[in-house]
Amino acid sequence: MAKVFDATEVAKHNTPESCWVILYGKVYDVTDFLSEHPGGSRIILKLAGKDATEEYDPIHPPGILEENLKPEAMLGTVNPDTLPKVQAEPEASSDEKEGPPPMESLLNMDDIEQVATKNVSKKAWAYYYSASDDKVTKHFNTEVYRSILLRPRVFVDCTRCDLDTTLLGHNLGMPIYVSPAAMARLGHPAGEAGIAEACRSFGAMQIISNNASMTPEQIVKDAGPGQVFGWQIYVQIDRKKSEAMLARINKIKEIKFIVLTLDAPVPGKREDDERGNVVGASAPVPSATKAAESAEDETSRINQSAGGVGKQLFAGTDPSLTWKETLPWLATRTDLPIILKGLQTHEDAYIASLHTPQVKGIILSNHGGRALDTAPPAVHTLMEIRKFCPEVFDKLEVWVDGGIRRGTDVVKALCLGAKAVGIGRPALWGLGAGGVDGVKRTLQILADESKTCMRLLGVETVNQLGPQHINTRLLEQQIYDGPSGLESLRNIFRAKL
Amino acid sequence: MAKVFDATEVAKHNTPESCWVILYGKVYDVTDFLSEHPGGSRIILKLAGKDATEEYDPIHPPGILEENLKPEAMLGTVNPDTLPKVQAEPEASSDEKEGPPPMESLLNMDDIEQVATKNVSKKAWAYYYSASDDKVTKHFNTEVYRSILLRPRVFVDCTRCDLDTTLLGHNLGMPIYVSPAAMARLGHPAGEAGIAEACRSFGAMQIISNNASMTPEQIVKDAGPGQVFGWQIYVQIDRKKSEAMLARINKIKEIKFIVLTLDAPVPGKREDDERGNVVGASAPVPSATKAAESAEDETSRINQSAGGVGKQLFAGTDPSLTWKETLPWLATRTDLPIILKGLQTHEDAYIASLHTPQVKGIILSNHGGRALDTAPPAVHTLMEIRKFCPEVFDKLEVWVDGGIRRGTDVVKALCLGAKAVGIGRPALWGLGAGGVDGVKRTLQILADESKTCMRLLGVETVNQLGPQHINTRLLEQQIYDGPSGLESLRNIFRAKL
Amino acid sequence: MAKVFDATEVAKHNTPESCWVILYGKVYDVTDFLSEHPGGSRIILKLAGKDATEEYDPIHPPGILEENLKPEAMLGTVNPDTLPKVQAEPEASSDEKEGPPPMESLLNMDDIEQVATKNVSKKAWAYYYSASDDKVTKHFNTEVYRSILLRPRVFVDCTRCDLDTTLLGHNLGMPIYVSPAAMARLGHPAGEAGIAEACRSFGAMQIISNNASMTPEQIVKDAGPGQVFGWQIYVQIDRKKSEAMLARINKIKEIKFIVLTLDAPVPGKREDDERGNVVGASAPVPSATKAAESAEDETSRINQSAGGVGKQLFAGTDPSLTWKETLPWLATRTDLPIILKGLQTHEDAYIASLHTPQVKGIILSNHGGRALDTAPPAVHTLMEIRKFCPEVFDKLEVWVDGGIRRGTDVVKALCLGAKAVGIGRPALWGLGAGGVDGVKRTLQILADESKTCMRLLGVETVNQLGPQHINTRLLEQQIYDGPSGLESLRNIFRAKL
Amino acid sequence: MAKVFDATEVAKHNTPESCWVILYGKVYDVTDFLSEHPGGSRIILKLAGKDATEEYDPIHPPGILEENLKPEAMLGTVNPDTLPKVQAEPEASSDEKEGPPPMESLLNMDDIEQVATKNVSKKAWAYYYSASDDKVTKHFNTEVYRSILLRPRVFVDCTRCDLDTTLLGHNLGMPIYVSPAAMARLGHPAGEAGIAEACRSFGAMQIISNNASMTPEQIVKDAGPGQVFGWQIYVQIDRKKSEAMLARINKIKEIKFIVLTLDAPVPGKREDDERGNVVGASAPVPSATKAAESAEDETSRINQSAGGVGKQLFAGTDPSLTWKETLPWLATRTDLPIILKGLQTHEDAYIASLHTPQVKGIILSNHGGRALDTAPPAVHTLMEIRKFCPEVFDKLEVWVDGGIRRGTDVVKALCLGAKAVGIGRPALWGLGAGGVDGVKRTLQILADESKTCMRLLGVETVNQLGPQHINTRLLEQQIYDGPSGLESLRNIFRAKL
Fold it and tell me: Looking at the record, which segments are called Disordered (chains A, B, C, D) (predicted)?
């Protein structure tokens, strides 16, 4: 029988030399694991000697604890009577009693975000809502769609209209997919598997985040026939870890492609997230933390402040990826098609197009405005490619994400040449608002709005959409017109090939 | 003598198998009529077993009940003492007591809208006010006029100035007409006939909505000599219904032309309207409704939410109209000139110009921002036509609507080539603010403002107005400059003709 | 000894057949004068039978009563005890007790307007503040200056800097003059003579309004040596009245030129003014008013509502002026140079330049945004002239007004070619804020700011200012680029000359 | 032993004929010094007969009193019991008790400004915060950076990234320096020496203001090895004073260059500063002040109002500097490199480039929006130079200041060709928020943000940054396009050389 500890006993082990934590009522000695924690030792030391369950649970896949610790690290259980009583947040109580409104009463993405904002914890809200610096890019992502006008054609039979499309050769029910957004269980216990369940109903594709709060196997478990998933990789400094993970992914037949995220080699500065996470920081930081810090590498010290959820997730991520080294390495580790995510210039889109056939597609993305503030929206990059190197569209599938809030936004992106449109926050807000039903409502609204839009444009299928359906005149005046790196790139690659 | 029912007895008949409703104190069995209701069965089933008068009355022409039901459907009367007591909305009471202010104290369209907003029911407000999605187009419709500057010429005798004009060969007192706005009796019992009475005083033209809350005959009943009406058709899936209606219209001599609306083959998403209509939705939906839903066709299920007045009106409308099929059909059913409403691109204006002589005019319109959000304002389309195919102005009369709030707006549209300018909401707000006098006040203000504007431009008659009187420089930078469908259209039609 | 009336006796004479009013304690029979009143009979009939002093006094030059009425019209005096007691406006009392702050504590035009807004009556505020329709032009007048950037040159000796300039050959202390703003005594008893006193201190020019609340003789009475005035004429329908007035003006040696206002042949729609004037309108309008109305000419009935101070002032103004008839007539009635005010297009500026030598200058003005809303600011017209017919600057002096709130605004207008800059509201707000001292403060601030601006631009005298000192790039993109009437004008005038 | 005075005795000496003040408990007779005071006699006379310590201390370098007054001017001490009791500002007390938050909780410049705003006196806030007129330029300085988009390049190894740079041949830790901002001790007793201490930690350069509240010697006292300072000169009308000061500066080895400020030959109109300084002005101004005023020169009377801290600092500054006279004079007085500050046009940048080798660099600056309102931001001038005379970048170092609030702003300026970026207010707010630690936090945040930005752009060192990393399309449409003075300048200088 496992030994039973008093909380005060556990509390003594709060140093790098002896670090215990309580998780799900059990006591673990994580001293040896400190240096291996992908999120860095600092975050564990903050919780050293305490019950870390509430912090740990929503951001770690179930079962991963057992995977990573040796059996003997489990020292015993804690006597629950000796733990301090947790106070419920009183302000939320009245709302919680009410429960969320019926999903069908939510008419648009704003409604859903509003309900989710009330439902989820402050920490979850801060992590989902946050974006870099002044959120200029986050807001521009949405506003830019408002500045594109539609050109409805009339007297066209619009009885039939469907959103069916094909991505990487797979048949899908809509050109809208769920972006690899991390930490779904922060918002709702259904987590990423709940998103998968909703996607199944619509034939929608889902990309699983490298930082999902469930394992890929858990997420795809109840996949429908023909349901399509991708898996997003953040390449680790410790390349072995990534290779192990890729080997595991290669075995999951529902996962059809690998997404390599490039737009966030280092974390952006998400101030809401950092502030949202300060709750725990009000407790005095044990001196252990400070000692440990000095041992961490420079990247993790880029900012001195506590750092939000976003920053913790970056620990261990390799900032040294390159076209020359990383792509060939990745190609040797998987036969799945590779999608490059986070391209923001026509030059990089062009380079990607030179890396077929390994690279099958690119995602124009600024990471939801979470990486570099005042980076351009995907729509800008679409227009840059159209202007400088339209041949890219012939060689690769071009997907976009960021700022989508209306079906008209989806349609506009498609008119500009995107094959698919990703939603990140809307899916998470949907989950936060109503679990699986909330994500379904999100997808339903966007699908309905997209079809209404296509009908009113006089269009039956997504591949009929083109630049003749939109007026981008205002936007054209904002598209990059400076020195293009294209010519020198063309020469370099011509010389190479 | 008719049988007298208790309300509780009626209440039992609330299923698709036996559906009774109370209207004007009488009890009707509408079970057989359910499938024929142009607004779909769902809306009736919501009121099944209840007194539906308040919902029914303002949106149905008087007498239409008798026209559509067999005599035996009238089962008897309801014992009024057994009906639940209706509570007056308390908030409105003080305002109601006061009554609306004298119409002459209202100085502009905003004043009138403000008074009407207080006067009319929430449902009416929501139906009139609402527009698609984020109302980007609705607001742009008005703002776009503010971005056009006027160029007043001075030292010109402006003693005389009049608004007289000719539309389709008819002499009219002003180039402002009332657009085919539905459901006038929602706002005021005077309804569309009240609008007609106001128009008579000004020699203004009126287009009768397909969804008017009075019959065309009722509306034109007190027409003055030379008063001009048009009639708007939404072609029904059941083409016979439309043909019967056209036959009836052909007999009304005051109706001089047919307006075929093209900009709304499927309903836009008017969220205010949907929310405004949710009042009744708070009552538990009888299971009958759900059963019935599954039988409805796809179009009516485009959005899962309750749907506002606007969506109900669309039921039965045919989304499959085409240049090739519908125009010839319509031409065989009426000899009246045909006006096509809802054109939003120069390409469609051009095609229309190839369909003379049946087509005598077009109305550039985005349906008051109620169809597709981020569609362009009529002013954009005017400028597109000027830029790509100005010959259209020689072949057709071009009318516009949407966003008119000032006499200067009217004048600017005329300067850009419009022959007439339609007002929808302003007429309805006028009606809501003060009945017939409110509509007169609306027309008076716009007429006065238009004349003041013309005088200050140094212009005596509307046909003197031209592009030299306005500065559209800012706007020109926003007009579509992408691929024009015009060349291929010219080739197609050249080949044909 | 004059007869003494009870107020109740006077009150009976409130019809067009017998119309008495009380003014300064005396009772007048104005029945015969009704039809001659330049402001129309309606406004008098509203006050028929009552004490009209408060309404009459601030808008009529002292002594004009005696000039216009026969001696026998003065029937006697009123017994003051029989008059109703006037209630002080309670809200204003605390402010009034305090009195206005010291003028030197007011740092800019906004400060001055704010103090004046508190000081003056609601009616005065409404008259001064109001502009047409939505006040788009009024606000644009000011904002347009913000969109012009300055280009300061450095390392230039800026010890000396003065604002001296020459207008029409007269030496003046600054290029800022007071525009012909009407009804100064509404704001402060010092009236237009107070403005003249302030101008004297600065060597600033003043244009006397046709609708001044003091006679020209009263205004120029204490003029300093070399002080320069202009006189503004609104040509009356009854041309004899204008001729008599011109004859009188010709005799006043301080008046050096005549300003003919062209931008307001009919009144704009100033809603604030109309609402501000409704105070009296809450009293029941005697039926007499209605009867009288039907006899008024069409122009004065353009709007049905009560009409503000602005509209009353327009009564009798001739809307039929033309280049061909009016200019020659005016030239025969005065030898003074003629300045044309209210030009808003390059075409009209060009025509004016063909009418030298009678016409010596033009004022680009939109009447402070009070005539036609969405008319262009004077800065636009300056730029239009520079673009289409810069030769105008060589033939005429070009002055501008409208929207000036900062010394930088003054300097920018001069850089664009204006010889002088007029201020209307700022002078009236100054008067309202602190009488003569308030106007001085206004002129002092603008002079100081203008000099600071010139010094920081590296400029010593106003005639050194040019387009190289400003960046109008943003604005250039808004300047009219449509069909210019210039070529046809050039042909017409070439043919003529 | 020094004589002890009662405050009432001192109070009698409040005229220009006998002017005493109390400073640090001592009584001084400053009658003879009145005419020599660089800030003018007026400001002293306001405090004549009173304890001036609170006003005097934070804006004068310690020890300067003894330097400027003869020993016999110290008459004795004041009996402290006879001085009026000073009341603490009650509102600030609660905040003061709390003390400022930990610096690491401040995440950006706005946070720091907010805390500083609470911490510092109203007078200090007003002096730091204020800018000219309507603060259009101050706000534009920051907004202009938001309108430049970044162009992140991906798949680039961004492990290494540093901010090291070289300015005027000196190695520095970052391209961010502290601008010559005056009166640091107003905000915090650590003053300019505190800023120096913070700069030392980061290898950041500091320019010492001519109006520093500490002597240059005091400021550089604890400089680290290799720490670099510049010294800013405002040339005095009394050139001897400036020569003496330069001689003194030449001896301070840490000072490596002289900055000659050109953008403020006369003070701008900083209304917040003027209002902020009115606190003392509420006391009755002794008649002495008025008498003294009439003797002052015109420049100091440019505005009649009290004038803020900013205006006082200008007293004695020579507005007559010229390329021809001043530069050669300065070159004879120092061998240090000369940097010209305040250039705002490409023409002046070009002229500066013709004055090598004395002139080694220029600072594009509008004085933080404190000189001429609606002057262009430094970014405009950078782009003007790029457009008209890019050769300037080869001949001189171009630095910029104004509006920097984010690391992305720093990076954007560098991309446009700036070698270094100055911060003025951010350093002062940092000092006000937390003394030395506050300035360190300011520099830390900007350094961290700059590095994150560079990494996400795919750039390792500052000299890799170029126009290919930014999209300035929107901005290009605002850059001056009028007549360039360049051609005539080229001719003039060609002729000369």
Answer: 77-104, 269-303
Three-state DSSP class for residue A95: helix
Residue from B468, B267, D224 nearest C346 by CA: B468
Strand, coil or helix: C202: helix
- Pairing assessment for the beta strands D470-471 and D420-423 based on DSSP bridges: unpaired
Give the whole-angstrom CA distance, residue C236 versus residue C215. 17
Q: Do B473 and C483 touch (CB under 8 A)?
A: no
A170, two tokens: 């797979």
Axis-axis angle for helices B486-496, B346-353 (nearest 10): 20
Residue A285 has pLDDT above 50, yes or no: no
Q: How far apart are CA C89 and CA D37, in angstroms?
A: 52
Mean pLDDT for chain B? 89
Per-residue pLDDT, averaged over A158-173, amounts to 96
Q: How far is CA D339 from CA B315, D199, D259, D489, in A?
A: 76, 20, 5, 21
Is there an interface between A and C (3+ Cβ pairs < 8 A)?
no
Residue D31 lies in a domain: yes
Q: Do D127 and D73 fall into the same domain?
A: no
Catalytic option among C13, C346, C367, C469:
C367
Q: Mind listing the pLDDT tens digit for each residue in A385-442?
A: 999 999 999 999 999 999 999 999 999 999 999 999 999 999 999 999 999 999 999 9
| Contacts with B482 from chain A: Cβ below 8 Å | 467-468, 470-473
Rounded mean pLDDT, C457-471: 97
Q: How many domains does chain A have?
A: 2
Torsion angles phi and psi, residue D119, rounded to 5:
-75, -45
**Residue D73 to residue D26: CA distance in whole angstroms:** 10
**pLDDT band at residue B477 using 50, 70 and 90 as cut-offs:** very high
Are A434 and A377 contained in the same domain? yes
In a domain, D100, yes or no: no
| Choice among A273-282, B22-31, B215-224, C255-264 with the minimum mean pLDDT | A273-282
Q: Specify whether A214 is located in the same domain as A225.
A: yes
Inter-residue contact B147 to B154 (CB < 8 Å)? no
Domain that holds residue D169: 119-265+317-496
Q: Do A122 and A164 lie in a common domain?
A: yes
Check whether residue C349 and residue C391 sit in a common domain.
yes
Within this chain, do residues D223 and D369 fall inside the same structural domain, yes or no? yes
Task: Choose the closest CB to A133 out of D148, D152, D406.
Answer: D406
**C37-47 average pLDDT score:** 83
One domain, residues C377 and C229: yes
Q: What is the 3-state secondary structure (H, E, C) of B176-196?
A: EEECCCCCHHHCCCCHHHHHH
CATH code of the domain covering residue C364: 3.20.20.70
User: In the predicted model, what is the mean pLDDT of residues C404-408?
Assistant: 98
Q: Using the 3D structure, point to which of B288, B307, B326 is the last residue of a domain.
A: B307
Distances, alpha carbon D254 to alpha carbons B443, C262, D192, D213, D258, in Å: 79, 69, 15, 18, 12
Exposure string (b/e) for D469-495, b if CB count within 10 Å is 16 or more?
Answer: bbbbbebbebbbeeebbeeebeeeeee
D111 within a domain of the structure (yes/no):
no
Q: Does C249 share its domain with C320?
A: yes
* Residue B96 included in any domain: no
Q: Does D265 touch chain C (CB under 8 A)?
A: yes
pTM of the entire predicted model? 0.91
The band of A84, judged by pLDDT with boundaries at 50, 70 and 90, is: confident
ipTM of this complex: 0.90
CB of A340 within 8 Å of any CB in chain D?
yes
- Is the pLDDT higher at A319 or at A392? A392
Give the model confidence (pLDDT) of C167-224 as tens digits: 999 999 999 999 998 889 999 999 999 999 999 999 999 999 998 999 999 999 999 9
Instruction: Chain D: give the shortest CA distance to residue A44, in Å.
Output: 20
- In this structure, what CATH number is given to the domain that contains residue B79? 3.10.120.10
What positions of B carry a catalytic annotation?
A: 234, 263, 367
